[in-house]
Design a protein that fits this description.
The structure is a single chain. It is built from 15 helices and 10 strands. The protein has 391 residues and is of the alpha+beta class. It folds into 4 domains: 4-162, no CATH class; 168-235, no CATH class; 236-297, no CATH class; 302-366. The chain has a 6-stranded antiparallel beta sheet with strand order 1-5-2-3-4-6. A two-stranded antiparallel ribbon has the order 7-8. Strands 9-10 form a two-stranded antiparallel sheet. The longest helix is centred in the C-terminal third of the chain and has 23 residues, at 279-301. The N and C termini lie far apart (51 Å). This is DUF4388 domain-containing protein.
């Protein structure tokens, strides 16, 4: 591929990336620039092999702090020391024993993925491809990441944003708060968002306030909206031509709840709520979600203290998504599986499924025996059909 330069309004990454996925032997730098932010993605033979960004939030030290691998004060001190010594930051923290190499690689992969995914949403700015790669230096190299899986996850993320912005008019949206519809044990992230919304903070500011990034903030907002705890102040009811379809969705959600099919009820109620904030749909969503969480509680509690984390294979298995890998890093740094699953923006059920994919890929295993050394018998299948791994 020859040198190429264009505008992101006409040549977004969703259109360009398939060409890089399928181009055998391609080597070069893909640069995207919008305002003061410039990102570079280094590509070799269908893989992302490096990434850089001028966005302060995407500095590796900030990423390590957000992932709780290295606390913020020590990350800042390490950055200053690395600058003084003239050593790349990642190399410095590994050589000084501040961060394990495996954890650094996880953080670098997460940083590269999130920068790429965010760039898919840019509809203005410049894009340029330049053949050839910069000479390798002392920096720790990013593990090869398959562009095919990255493109798959980026397009999934784009669909997620499309649903989100269909529901809410724009970043200037403000919300009414109905705390009685929030869960009794709201997470710290949910409580923070509710307090900000009560103060009249706009949606754009709510997303910006999420320390883990806008996509995580959007997921928290969406969950609170579906429960009826956050309601946009300026909203339209369902269109007249949607009335019949909406009634059918509500009836289907009611039947699913009555049949104990709570996972399906949650999905159907969420579909109804994509059309308009309907009180009955909010109520059905809350009921199904709570019953799902109750059904899940015993299974999740049984995992505490029994998970064994294997090093991530390089490259990572294609069956694992970006959210799976992010959950892996969160779980490995926590003592409580239940707390991680309850406090992840993707939702408890989605996180539980991600954990099962990690187990199916053999990067997370169950300890075969209980602490007292007795063999653990076969556990039951959970009430809504997700098979439970046998210890």
């Amino acid at each position: 591929m020859e040198r190429f330069k264009g505008n992101l309004a006409s040549y977004g990454l969703s259109l360009l990336m398939p060409a890089f996925v399928d181009a055998s032997g391609l080597e070069g730098t893909l640069k995207v620039e919008r305002g003061a932010v410039r990102r570079q993605f280094f590509i070799r033979d269908g893989h992302l092999v490096g990434e850089s960004s001028t966005e302060p939030r995407e500095h590796l030290g900030q990423v390590l702090a957000r992932m709780r691998i290295l606390d913020a004060p020590r990350a800042a001190q390490a950055f200053e020391a690395a600058e003084t010594a003239g050593v790349p930051f990642g190399t410095f923290v590994v050589e000084r024993g501040l961060v394990e190499r495996a954890q650094l690689l996880e953080a670098m992969e997460h940083k590269a993925r999130e920068a790429l995914f965010d760039s898919y949403g840019w509809q203005s700015g410049e894009v340029e491809f330049m053949p050839g790669l910069p000479a390798p230096g002392r920096a720790v190299e990013l593990p090869r990441m398959a562009l095919r899986e990255l493109h798959r996850d980026a397009m999934t993320r784009q669909r997620e944003w499309k649903v989100f912005w269909t529901l809410f008019a724009g970043p200037g949206t403000t919300f009414g708060v109905c705390r009685e519809f929030a869960l009794e044990a709201a997470s710290a992230a949910e409580e923070h968002l509710l307090r900000m919304a009560e103060q009249g903070v706009t949606l754009g500011a709510l997303l910006a306030a999420c320390p883990e990034g806008a996509v995580h903030g959007a997921r928290w907002v969406l969950r609170l909206y579906r429960r009826g705890a956050l309601l946009p102040r300026q909203t339209q009811g369902p269109r007249q031509d949607e009335a019949a379809a909406l009634a059918a969705l509500l009836e289907q959600a009611r039947r699913r709840v009555e049949a104990g099919q709570y996972e399906e009820a949650v999905a159907v109620a969420a579909q109804a709520l994509e059309r308009a904030p309907i009180p009955e749909a909010h109520a059905l969503y809350r009921e199904a979600e709570v019953r799902l969480m109750v059904a899940l509680a015993d299974e999740v509690l049984a995992l505490d203290g029994r998970l064994i984390f294997e090093p991530l294979p390089r490259p990572t298995p294609p069956s694992l998504t970006a959210d799976d890998l992010y959950l892996y890093s969160k779980l490995r740094g926590s003592r409580s599986v239940r707390e991680v699953l309850r406090n992840t923006a993707m939702g408890e059920l989605a996180a539980y499924r991600a954990l099962r994919r990690l187990m199916a890929a053999d990067v997370v295993r169950l300890r075969p025996e209980q602490e007292d050394g007795t063999a653990r018998g076969r556990t039951k299948t959970d009430p809504y059909g997700i098979p439970i791994v046998v210890g």
